[in-house]
Q: What sequence folds into this?
């Protein structure tokens, strides 16, 4: 849900205070728990450690991110993958074909010498 335009963007004052007087090159990672904080133009170039519930995920802020929330770039759920036995068989076949292709390239390179 968007914030009312008459209120303006929500930028956490604690985050802005951490940025005060620092340059993006010397600041390092700035830890924050404020996932709802909107990215302001002053934050471009800084690296934030955004808490995802377990640890801090490093998020480098670029110009394209202005207007988004910090929490959008620090996922809270870890995707393991779909599939079971059938998926494992497919991955094994793919791995074997990659190894065979690598051996073929290596053999071709040795025969040219």
A:
């Amino acid at each position: 849900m968007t914030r009312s335009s008459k209120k303006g963007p929500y930028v956490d004052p604690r985050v802005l205070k951490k940025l005060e007087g620092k340059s993006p090159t010397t600041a390092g990672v700035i830890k924050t728990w404020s996932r709802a904080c909107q990215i302001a133009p002053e934050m471009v170039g800084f690296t934030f450690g955004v808490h995802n519930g377990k640890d801090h995920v490093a998020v480098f802020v670029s110009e394209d991110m202005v207007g988004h929330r910090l929490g959008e770039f620090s996922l809270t759920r870890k995707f393991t993958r779909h599939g079971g036995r059938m998926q494992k068989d497919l991955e094994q076949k793919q791995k074997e074909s990659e190894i065979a292709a690598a051996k073929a390239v290596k053999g071709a390179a040795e025969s040219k010498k």
